[in-house]
Design goal:
With about 220 residues, the chain is an alpha+beta fold. Helix content is about 45%, strand content about 15%. Keywords: Cell inner membrane, Cell membrane, Membrane, Protein transport, Signal, Transmembrane, Transmembrane helix, Transport.
Length: about 220
């Protein structure tokens, strides 16, 4: 994607008054890791959406993370990216003796879009963009369900023109697919095959074959 985040990060724990897991190398290392690996989602980047997403997860005795989910988010693509990058921290935590792995760690992640390009962004414009994202999810589901059924030979082909019109309305064009392929490539380089496969399968499920080679190679 075109824009990276400037992240301001800190840790808060659901459990207080006890020794806490720490990221190997300390808070500056955590900040650097997330700043390097977060890929600003396309919709939020283009619509200049800034937010802090709180992600919860658990850390076991080996420093691996599990049960990663959104504690407080916006219900948009920023949530998904925050969860994805926290999963990448697995194995990079140091756990003190006697730590209870059943406690949740809360990690707030701040997303800030390009300030030069987004000078005119306001709270009202961000609120509108968030509402539009959620409204468009219904169309997105209709598109992906149509192509999933089409690949199975079960689609109502009479809806093809309607689906194509929806794709045009949502901007699912060649440029969008190129951006998503680039995003998937970045995730693969980070070792995030799961995230890359999610993007490649999305491309396939909006009716494009441009990710099929990657799916057959990496997404078994």
């Amino acid at each position: 994607m075109r824009f990276r985040i400037l992240s301001v990060l800190f840790l808060a724990f659901a459990a207080s008054g006890m020794a806490q897991p720490s990221f190997k190398g300390g808070s500056q290392a955590l900040d650097a890791f997330l700043a390097k690996n977060i890929i600003y989602p396309e919709y939020s980047s283009q619509n200049c959406i800034a937010a802090t997403i709180q992600v919860r997860f658990r850390v076991d005795e080996k420093g691996n993370v599990s049960q990663v989910g959104v504690e407080k988010g916006l219900g948009i693509d920023l949530d998904d990216e925050a969860v994805r990058v926290v999963k990448l921290t697995s194995g990079k935590w140091t756990v003190p003796p006697g730590y209870n792995p059943n406690y949740n760690v809360i990690l707030p992640i701040r997303f800030d879009p390009d300030r030069t390009r987004c000078q005119g962004a306001t709270d009202a414009s961000m609120t509108l963009a968030i509402a539009q994202y959620k409204a468009q999810e219904g169309m997105q589901d209709a598109i992906t369900n149509y192509y999933k059924n089409k690949y199975l030979g079960k689609a109502d082909l009479a809806r093809e023109a309607e689906i194509i019109a929806m794709k045009k309305q949502l901007g699912y064009d060649d440029r969008f697919i190129r951006d998503l392929l680039d995003q998937a490539s970045q995730k693969l380089k980070q070792g995030d095959t799961e995230g890359a496969c999610h993007d490649w399968n999305f491309i396939r499920n909006i009716g494009s074959n441009k990710a099929d080679t990657f799916i057959s190679q990496y997404c078994k």
